[in-house]
Amino acid sequence: MNKEKNNGNSKVYFDCNATAPILKEACQAALWSMERVYANPSSSHIAGAEAKLILEESRIQASKLLNVKPTEIYFTSGATEAIQISVLSVLNWIKDQIKDEPSFLNKKILISKTEHKAVYNSIIHWKKILGVNLEVVQIGVNSKGHISLDEIQEHINDTVFLCTMAVNNETGLITNLKEIEKVIRSSASKVFWLVDCVQALGKISLNFNDLSVDYATFSGHKVHAPKGIGFLYLREKAPQCSLIVGGGQERGIRAGTENHPGIAAIGVILEKLNKIKDGCLDPHFKTNQELFHFRSLLLNSLVEAFPAIEINTDLENSVATTLNFSVYGFTSKELMRVFDAAGVSLSGGSACNSKSLDYSHVLEAMNLPEWRKASAIRLSFGLTTSQEEIFLGIKNIQAAGKALKNSCLNLACKIIDDSIDNNSEDSLIHGITQLEYDSSNTWLISDINTRFCVIIDPTFESIDRLISLIKCKNLNIQAVLDTHSHADHVSARSCLLEKLLLKNDACDELGWNSESNILNFNSSTWEIERLETPGHTLDSVSYFLKNKSSLDEKIECVFIGDTVLIGGLGRTDFSISDSKLFYDTIKNLDKKLHDNTILCPAHDYSQSIVTTWGTEKRNNILLKKLFDPLNCMSEKEFFAEKKLIDSQLLETNLQGKLVCGTISNSVLTDKSLPTISIEDLDASIFEIIDIRENAESILFKNWNVLNFINPPKNIPLTKIVNFFNYLINEENKNKPIALLCSTGNRSLAIAKSLRRIGIKNVWSISGGLALSQLKYDNLYNF
What we know:
By secondary structure, the protein is α/β, with parallel strands linked by helices. Helix content is 33%, strand content 18%.
């Protein structure tokens, strides 16, 4: 069963396209192989012969399932290795052809734009190694992901190698292989055809006796066998080239002693799939009818929980076990974290892309709207998923939807659930809220007592979320401000005002609507002072946030735009920049700011949240020289060095976007990991802070598994700036703080950032809730 205990409830696993849970009988077969039939299959004695029989029986099962010869099946470590053998075989054959016929250099390799990156990367790699400089043409798809047959037809007479998928790993789309075959076999040219069948095995019928595929790749861990075992179908007359040379195993194509336990395990799976193919029912494997019914139940649950959902899967032409969807107003990471907290494990796309900041290349190829690409989630269940697990998944999906429904940052639901007190998050709204998107920061300053708020540097991506937050908390907007005009895009300020039905009656282009340099909100806690800080742009300004309730009305923080970045300075090489004014600005800022003043920049390229003026003067190379009391940099020297730094940024971009200033390679000067294990954590000494978003925090109830008497205080990442401001005060700097999140990644980033600004007694609980629960559940012997 694909479930485990979590939060006092059960957790359901819906990420089977990444890897599926191992079937118990497959585990038993692998264990039996290790304990009883452990001889080398290449040995000539009886024990070796017994091992060889199991290996060859699994090969027969694979060949029967695909309707091919057993001698056309080669066991590998998985699909990626099978892809290497296929690509290497074809490219090596092409290399030999070029020697006799140089015109072969004009041939092309065709590959679908939605192909798994393992195929594309393999082609590029082996082309370089072999020196085969053929053009690689990526074939487009339509908005549902279907490959363009017209584009294949356009290139087919010049093509020698075609790579497609049988089933897409991200959307579950079934490729019409027969239609592709008609196109490529109508050509007079010999075209070798590789088909990635990883997500197709057990889900659609594959008959290679009736389909002229030359190479097909398979992976065991996608169909409930262990990781580390897969196989390749290699048509008898197709080019062959050994990937691993050694003792001649797998008929010389893949040498090395075979993974006998893995082969025994996948043999069990293949045997079951063959029986199902022959019309037999299996107690563990669900029928296609049952799987489609499961998908329908899950789809209805998702639509009910998230009314603003869009389905990215072509439901009429896809396997039953994959759903790809987007929820308006959330990024993939935000959604995954809430689902995870609710007990639903799923992914943001291909597991191979999970750490990338880029959108899914599959959804990019489908040319979906920006928000759908940014929000995409893949839910995938297995061939053995039970009805009980589906119902549990539905229950947990509803819990995730309810938690988000009552979050003021939620855009997926139009009506706030009255069953939950909507004022429970009021304390989380007070102060500074940071909305980050693609390294750009939008800042919201709010006073929950007066309901006054100010928005600084709104981005287009933050508009709907700001509106949701403002309406949810009934906030009264006092000003919408920019810190500067932009060299590469227009401000989102006017668009935000228009959507809020507010007049654009500011005194200047940046939104300041007061004739003085002070914006005072009567009984509000806050006061904002405006200071001209030109340099990055001629109209750059900074906004100083003062706390009127403090005795000295000290500056809490400064919203500094792109003048000072974390570990860098704003560039001054735009047509609307002035480096001489920038020098004066830096000097003037030093007169206004103290070392502990928090700087809130318009961009955060290092994911460090904020910085302080003192930290930048100590670590920022140019500022350090400028304020060196023994050898202060002259104005002329500053100009020269700033010009040099800016010139090095001319060709610099971040994911194809213009970078607004220098990005330090060593933002975090302390390279040590400020982590603490759950065993070493003394809750009576440390103040424990849960930095997950509020919707995640309220879903987790079972704190006693971590030996916590009381739940930790929740300070969401979007509000963490206020915590920075609290800890920077001298009386709080040495408080022992332990930060907690789901996996330890977010808490570690915050701990590092706090260490950077001088908070030395802050730690991240290593592994977060995931590792902590694992230890207390005794699921692994640590």
